[in-house]
Amino acid sequence: MKVLQINAVYGFASTGIIVKDIENLLINNGHTSYVAYQTAVNPPENSYRTGNKLDWKLHALYSRIMGKQAYASKLATKELINYIKKISPDIVHLHNLHSNYINLNMLCDYLAKAKLSTVITMHDCWYFTGKCTHYTAVKCDKWQTTCGNCPQNKNEQPSLFIDCTSMVLKDRTTRLNKINNLTFVGCSKWIADEAKKSLIKNAQIDVVYNGVDTSVFTPHESDFKEKNNLKDKFVILGMANKWCLEINKTAVEAIVRQNHDAKIIIVGCTDEQKDMFSQYENVLCIGYVNGRQELSDIYSSADVFINLTHADTLPTVNMESICCGTPVITYDCCGSPELVDDDSGFVIAEDDVAGLLCGIEQIKKTPITFDVKSKQEKFDKNTCYNKYLDIYNSLLKRNE
Q1: 238 contacts 266 by C-beta, under 8 angstroms
Q2: Which of 44, 108, 273, 387 is the most buried (most CB within 10 A)?
Q3: Same domain, 193 and 261
Q4: Within this chain, do residues 74 and 192 fall inside the same structural domain, yes or no?
Q5: Backbone angles phi, psi at 306, to 5 degrees
Q6: Residue 219 within a domain
């Protein structure tokens, strides 16, 4: 079996690591893997770089002015199609295409005409909306019928002048529905259920969690607490990309002020964000952590991980924390709550500050312990990604 994955990145960031993990799984099972990408770290032998920096910049400018992403890069997409014809894959697996490097209409037209079995992993909601990757924060459901007057037109993938979301949604869904042997894969049950409400009617819809490396994310001792003077401290962990959002300002201030006896670790802070918290003695800001082992050390040293997400398909951070034995408190939003069982943390209503503080106090008084091994079996990347092999084989049988 020959499988071509197409993604904006390879070998780094969340989706780039997923692509690499699936590639390794294919090779280890005797299959042939190909990867097409925009940017890569140590690209594999069977790989293809789509476009160039000038093309990407022109595409980004077109998207900003016209409000239509994935409509430019026609020459680059034509060359990619020629590459697909050359390698003749059995399966084409699409990941993140909304990074100003591919013309989606041209690619879908070719996949439909060539009758290629196609898998699309929904890392976010982009494939079934007219623009946005997430819409929950603005409570929008226009994508179920027709977009237009987009509430995020000037924010997410900002368009300077034109709102083309209605036309984009029609183009996108019409072309995707023409691909006969198509499977949409949700990274969470939540997004799979959302896709079922969309205008995509010609696709099988499955669920495959984005797994984690449980050989790295596992309970262990480290010197993180000792190096940061955290011994005997109750440690609350959060991620800057959520904690520093304006929408979470009230919740964060409450957590910081009510937990003066604890130490709050915020990971991924910029210098500006570090300045924001410099007035609080109980807050330790850490910059970006690139090494997974270092991140695992931090999870394993924490007493609770708090995810203040308002828009996440499937927060890998929840799985990483739980696999390290650290309970999670999260908002009841998108795919985040389905990762937290009754024994591994608390799910509270969005912006329920009192609920957040109550959950923290409960864990302070009675630390949560749970069967980490059973969670690791559920979230292990090999267990999760093996399901893609089943999906590929199922598509090939349907195409016989």
Answers
A1: yes
A2: 108
A3: no
A4: yes
A5: -115, 120
A6: no
Number of domains making up the chain: 2
For residues 23 and 25, give the distance between their C-alpha atoms in angstroms, rounded to a whole number. 5
Mean pLDDT for each 10-residue chunk of the chain (400 residues)? Answer: 98 93 96 98 96 96 92 98 98 97 98 97 96 91 94 83 93 96 97 97 95 96 93 95 94 94 96 92 93 95 97 94 98 96 96 96 96 96 95 88
For residues 394 and 71, what is the distance between their CA atoms, to the nearest angstrom? 31
In a domain, 217, yes or no: no
User: And the tokens for 354?
Assistant: 């009192």
